[in-house]
Amino acid sequence: MKIGITCYPTYGGSGVVATELGKALAERDHEIHFISSSIPFRLSHVAGNIFFHEVNVQTYPLFEYPPYTLSLTSKMVDISKHAGLDVMHVHYAIPHAASAVMARDMLRSEGQHVPVVTTLHGTDITLIGQDPSFAPVVTWSINASDGVTAVSDYLRRETYEHFDVSNGIEVVPNFIDTDRFQRQDKEHFKQALCPNGEKVIVHVSNFRPVKNADQVIETFARLRRDDLPVKLILVGDGPDRVPAERTARDLGVYDDIRFLGKQDPVEEILSIADVFLMPSGSETFGLAALEAMACNVPVVASDVGGLPELIVDGETGFLCPLDDVDAFTQRTRALLTNDDLHERMSAAARKRAEDTFDISKIVPMYETYYQTVRERSMAEA
Predict the structure, then answer these.
(1) What is the domain-level CATH number for residue 191?
(2) What are residue 289's phi and psi, to 5 degrees?
(3) Are residues 64 and 101 in the same domain?
(4) How confident is the model at residue 193 (pLDDT cuts 50, 70, 90)?
(5) What's the whole-model pTM score?
(6) What pLDDT does residue 165 have?
(7) How does DSSP assign 28-46, residue by residue?
(8) How many other β-carbons are positioned within 10 Å of the β-carbon of residue 168?
(9) How many CB atoms are located within 10 Å of the residue 380 CB?
(10) What are the DSSP E strand ranges found in 156-289?
(11) Domain assignment present for 182
């Protein structure tokens, strides 16, 4: 099939999933056309049957804000016509689904049928989409799509609860390439950061307020006050990074923390981790946690959103009540001080990633869904 994929190109879960899906589909002999404002973060190059089409936004004195949504619609129409797309798969409802539906209707008026599959990822439903200024467009876009998927059952429930959605929603979870994400021998790296054999805690996020980076540092500080030999690595960047650095200084643990910023490949860092902390206030799936699990790292996370669908409490990691720093500290301490517990959970985390969320199991689900949506769309035409 010839598949158009639109996603946000920036560092974040939805863009990562969309890009990795496109690359995997290309390996299965599909022709993939990425349509975005810039090349996606995880798409290092284009070659063979992978193409990238940049959306150019023209500026005019009339427009205070350039009309990206309309430029994206026009680019989707252009690529669909000249590449002969079979389906458009858009990730994140705002504004990608609205643009795709408009493009589909324009193409339909000219006799070309290109169905739209919209994948809901998280804040497009749980936060931004519920803003009254966006909610009507989000509802229309979902109902007007030819197919809709959500990355967790939690997100599907949230969509039906907060929007007047009549369309069916298929749950297709996020996935991991367990060949790429597996524990590697990075002892030289760990020795450089932990010369005295300290254990390593890792947190990866976009440092938005909802990620609760300050709770990661508070948990770490409590462990250090107990004289546990441990270091903390923080990966990613965002508005809460500077406040997090300030908190680390205030708590006297800054010298035991490494702020590494955005990193790719993150699996090299996860390969030296002993525990992964995710005290998020909201997670519709938890892709960063899955990446850690695939690298044999037990996860201590908030018991919120879609995380219970990913993490088996007491088996592959621990789920803690939201904002309960005491619980996070206790569970993390247990993993750092009980070698048998850590070994058992590390193996279980890797096994769950392989058995349930490996890319080889999830990509065929999308292929089947594309075909179902396309056949249904053609029958209704």
Answers:
(1) 3.40.50.2000
(2) -65, -40
(3) yes
(4) confident
(5) 0.90
(6) 94
(7) TT-EEEEEESS--TT----
(8) 9
(9) 9
(10) 170-171, 199-204, 230-235, 257-261, 275-278
(11) no
- Same structural domain, 153 and 258: no
Q: Tens digit of pLDDT for each residue in 337-357?
A: 999 999 999 999 999 999 999
Under the banding of pLDDT at 50, 70 and 90, the label for residue 35 is: very high
- Using alpha carbons, select from 131, 133, 130 the residue that is nearest to residue 162: 130
Domain ranges, residue 331: 187-357
Residues 205 and 353 in one domain: yes
Query: Could you tell me if 9 and 15 are in contact, meaning their C-beta atoms sit under 8 angstroms apart?
Result: yes
**Which helix (H) or strand (E) is 147 found in, with range?**
strand 147-150
Let me know whether 211 and 124 are in one domain.
Answer: no
pLDDT for residue 128 is more than 80 = no
Whether residue 283 is contained in a domain is answered as yes
Q: Which two tokens stand for residue 120?
A: 């809901």
Query: Is residue 12 very low, low, confident or very high in pLDDT (cuts 50, 70, 90)?
Result: low
Q: Are 148 and 123 within one domain?
A: yes
Domain count, the chain: 2
pLDDT at 135: 87
Same domain flag for 335 and 238: yes
Q: Please tell me the distance from the alpha carbon of residue 5 to that of residue 76, in angstroms, as a whole number.
A: 10
Q: What pLDDT, on a 0 to 100 scale, did the predictor assign at position 117?
A: 98
CA torsion sign for 143, 373, 173, 124 is negative
pLDDT class of 298 with cuts at 50, 70, 90: very high
